[in-house]
């Protein structure tokens, strides 16, 4: 079936219009210029969270450009390129492992591969070929033959940047495990298993426990990776702009002294941001003992000592499968927790939280909410369904923005490979809540990640079948004052 004659032009127009919006944001910034890939100085906008319009524009550009390229090129050309994309992460791993960005920082004008190789302690000719592939993909730049320098992207790989720890997590345990995915699926016993100890990760590492057992000291290497994983999650939060929840969820509507419990917080990246942006909140950080010690003794004294001095943060260990968190908090916040577990374990976690919730309490599950890769349709005019919907993508794109939001589908496969776990759709989250006696309140769309808000079911709430018929529910800003009476 042939495409509409205007299809390519529509995609080009979509890209052009979205680009104008991006340019306007740079021009309105404190340093009104659009950075080039050759720039190594951080632009002020790089430190700021993107507003909803800017996020949508960038996702539109990414989705439309990828769709345009896939449309105009021969299918064989595109598919072969997709097959070979697996090499780039391996090259990225080499660059991070040998701290190439750190080395190049000493010579901003560029360094010859002979010197880079000598400093890194590896063969310069092989390293040059690796850097050339990365430079061709706009990570590093080749300023002259065999002379490489940092650029806007490679600066993210400097060893002090948590993105470098994230890169090692993905290119080692995540992608290493994924390379065993076909073998795992073909295994008669493991292929259909949901056991977190029968995964591609287990075939890759030959470790017989689950990933988090590995991280908590299953082996010396696993313990080191667990430490690295905590830092990597800071980089992950930065890359996906998870901090949008700090400003786009109505924390400011909660009264002074309202309590927020970050369950499975790790070192508390989001909690740190809440402490700085909303000092009226009382914060609780809970995770396994090793992470709590790391947060209390290493991270918070350096990054937010005032919260400790003012007694605005409490640190308590928890095993959320067997224990309930600190009782009667106003919000129980879970970021990237439920996607680690299949339904039975997720029900245990949520049920343990429900046991200590008050009538005013909320659970806020901050994760990716998967959408189907169906064609986008025109925005619905019925505002009564806002609590149940993501903001619609332009009609020229897939409903999930295609390549503009591909990260969540990559992560879904990472979860399968590492833990036999998954990302979920909104309907699956609502069903999960119902199994625990929790009632859906609202979907919060933060542009890439989203959040599902739940409360203790009153017995009169509408169930999933009615929700899918587009009924409206109250959201926290409107109900909180009544629940406190």
Automatic annotation (TrEMBL):
Keywords: Methyltransferase, S-adenosyl-L-methionine, Transferase. It comes from the Eukaryota. Residues 87-158 form the O-methyltransferase dimerisation domain. Gene3D superfamilies: Vaccinia Virus protein VP39, Winged helix-like DNA-binding domain superfamily/Winged helix DNA-binding domain. One of its GO terms (molecular function) is O-methyltransferase activity. The keyword Protein biosynthesis does not apply. The keyword Transferase applies. GO terms for biological process: methylation. Residues 256-375 form the O-methyltransferase C-terminal domain. This is S-adenosyl-L-methionine-dependent methyltransferase.
């Amino acid at each position: 079936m042939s495409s509409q004659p205007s299809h390519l032009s529509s995609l080009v127009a979509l890209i052009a219009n979205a680009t104008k919006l991006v340019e306007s944001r740079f021009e309105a910034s404190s340093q009104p210029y659009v950075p080039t890939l050759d720039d190594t100085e951080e632009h002020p906008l790089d430190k700021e969270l993107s507003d909803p319009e800017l996020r949508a524009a960038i996702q539109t550009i990414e989705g439309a450009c990828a769709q345009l390229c896939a449309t105009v090129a021969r299918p064989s050309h595109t598919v072969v390129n997709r097959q070979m994309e697996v090499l780039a992460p391996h090259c990225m791993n080499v660059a991070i492992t040998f701290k190439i960005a750190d080395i190049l920082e000493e010579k901003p004008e560029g360094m010859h591969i002979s010197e880079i190789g000598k400093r890194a302690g590896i063969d310069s000719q092989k390293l040059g070929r690796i850097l050339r592939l990365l430079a061709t993909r706009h990570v590093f730049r080749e300023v002259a033959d065999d002379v490489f320098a940092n650029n806007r992207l490679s600066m993210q790989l400097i060893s002090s940047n948590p993105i470098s720890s994230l890169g090692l997590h993905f290119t080692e345990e995540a992608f290493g495990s994924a390379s065993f995915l076909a073998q795992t699926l073909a295994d008669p016993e493991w292929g259909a298993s949901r056991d977190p100890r029968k995964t591609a990760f287990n075939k890759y590492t030959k470790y017989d426990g689950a990933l988090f057992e590995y991280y908590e000291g299953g082996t010396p290497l696993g313990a080191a990776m667990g430490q690295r994983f905590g830092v990597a999650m800071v980089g992950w939060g930065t890359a996906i702009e998870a901090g949008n929840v700090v400003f786009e969820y109505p924390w400011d509507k909660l009264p002074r002294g309202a309590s927020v419990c970050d369950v499975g917080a790790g070192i508390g990246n989001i909690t740190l941001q809440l402490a700085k942006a909303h000092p009226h909140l009382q914060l609780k950080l809970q995770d396994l003992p090793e992470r709590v010690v790391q947060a209390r003794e290493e991270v918070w004294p350096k990054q937010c000592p005032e919260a400790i001095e003012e007694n605005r943060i409490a640190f308590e260990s928890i095993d959320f499968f067997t224990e309930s968190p600190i009782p009667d908090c106003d919000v129980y916040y879970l970021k990237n927790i439920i996607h680690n577990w299949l339904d039975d374990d997720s029900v245990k976690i949520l049920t343990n939280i429900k046991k200590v919730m008050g009538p005013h309490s909320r659970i806020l599950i901050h994760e990716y909410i998967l959408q189907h890769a169906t064609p986008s349709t025109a925005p619905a005019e019925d505002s009564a369904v806002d609590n149940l919907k993501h903001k619609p993508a332009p009609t020229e794109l897939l409903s999930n923005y295609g390549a503009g939001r591909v990260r969540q589908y990559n992560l879904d496969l990472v979860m399968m490979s590492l833990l036999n776990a998954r990302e979920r759709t909104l309907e699956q989250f609502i069903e999960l809540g119902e199994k625990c006696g929790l009632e859906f309140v609202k979907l919060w769309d933060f542009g890439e990640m989203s959040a599902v808000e739940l409360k203790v079911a009153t017995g009169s709430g509408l169930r999933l079948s009615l929700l899918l018929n587009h009924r409206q529910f109250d959201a926290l800003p409107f109900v909180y004052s009544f629940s406190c009476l």
